[in-house]
Amino acid sequence: MKKVLVFGTFDIFHPGHEYFLKQAKKHGDELVVVVARNATVKQVKGKVPAHDENYRLGVIQKLDYVDKALLGHGSADKYRIIDEIRPDVICLGYDQESFTDNLEAKLQERGLSPEIVRISAYMPHVHKSKHYQQQKQKD
User: Fold this and answer.
1) DSSP character at residue 66
2) Distance (Å, rounded) from C-alpha 126 to C-alpha 76?
3) What is the per-residue pLDDT across 89-130, written as a single tens digit (0 to 9) for each?
4) Which of 19, 88, 101, 136 has its CA 20 to 30 A from that of 113?
5) CATH, residue 21
6) How far apart are CA 59 and CA 9, in angstroms?
7) Can you tell me the distance from the alpha carbon of 115 to that of 104, in angstroms, rounded to the nearest whole number?
8) How far apart are CA 103 and CA 4, in angstroms?
9) 81 — phi, psi (to 5°)?
10) Are 5 and 90 in contact, with CB atoms under 8 Å apart?
11) 97 alpha carbon, distance to own chain's centre
12) How many whole angstroms separate alpha carbon 32 and alpha carbon 24?
């Protein structure tokens, strides 16, 4: 069974996220989604997400095309969860930059060699989280 791993914040779930996850699912048999912890989001993006980590996890867990969803560890070792899951494929979003620098080399140092796939964008001028966050702030 080919295991696909994706990770992200998934704060205000929108059609761009859905496209990303469904495209990732096409790369294997089992889709595992790691939802970022609140503290990790704050560290990476400089702000806390609009929705709590448990709420965001619940949204992802309800999707019928997601086989497993869990919270990241939030530990100093950001690659530990990848060690534990041992995916065959890691799919990254078109604009995902956090923890992706030298990802392949860092995983090889740990004895892992998953295929790294960058998923294309789905209407990023409309379906991008920052657009939804800006709209939410106006409401």
Assistant:
1) -
2) 34
3) 999 999 888 777 889 999 999 999 999 999 998 865 554 545
4) 19
5) 3.40.50.620
6) 11
7) 8
8) 15
9) -65, -35
10) yes
11) 11
12) 10
In the structure encoding, which two tokens stand for residue 37, read together? 């912890």
Q: Is residue 98 part of a domain?
A: yes
Burial 85-94 (b: 16+ CB within 10 A, else e): bebbbbbbbe
Is 97 inside any structural domain? yes
Q: Which tens digit of pLDDT belongs to each residue from 30-66?
A: 999 999 999 999 888 888 999 999 999 999 999 999 9
Could you identify the residue written with the tokens 């709209």? 135
Predicted pLDDT of residue 136: 47
Structure tokens at 78: 């950001």
Rounded to whole angstroms, the Cα distance separating 51 from 40 reads: 13
139 part of a folded domain = no
Residue 32 is assigned to a structural domain of this protein:
yes
Q: What pTM does this model have? A: 0.87
Segments forming the whole domain that contains residue 87: 3-134
